[in-house]
Amino acid sequence: MAYGGMRLTPGAPIGQRVSGDSAAKQPSDKATRADPPLHCWVTHPGTDRCPGVLVEWQHDGDQWWGLVVFVADDKGRSVVVTRLVPAAALSPA
Q1: Which of 5, 15, 77, 91 could lock onto 87 through a cystine, CB 3.0 to 4.6 A?
Q2: Hey, how many other C-beta atoms are within 10 angstroms of the C-beta on 8?
Q3: 21 phi/psi in degrees, rounded to 5
């Protein structure tokens, strides 16, 4: 382990962690806290990915959403953003 104890090897994609495709436990409620919060990469269309923290999963119909906190650039200023993003836009850090 390095860099604050985070693994350098890839793990299961975050979307698989809740979809039942891996050994991870699937949340059973509409909103389930990520316990502990997970470091992740957030990918936005047309931009680079940025590091974030997944704090909660939410289920809507057949799609999972992650509530993430990340820092974004706003015209040269750093701003803290909290946003629901589709699970497909998240990957393990």
Answers
A1: 15
A2: 7
A3: -80, -10
For position 6, what pLDDT does the model report? 44
CB 32 within 8 A of CB 65: no
Q: Say if residues 40 and 92 touch (Cβ distance below 8 Å).
A: yes
Structural tokens at position 88: 């497909």
Q: Burial-class residue 72 by CB neighbours within 10 Å (0-12, 13-18, 19+).
A: middle
Report the predicted TM-score, pTM, of the whole model to 2 decimal places.
Answer: 0.62
Looking up tokens 């200023």 gives 77
| pLDDT confidence tier of residue 36, bands split at 50, 70 and 90 | confident
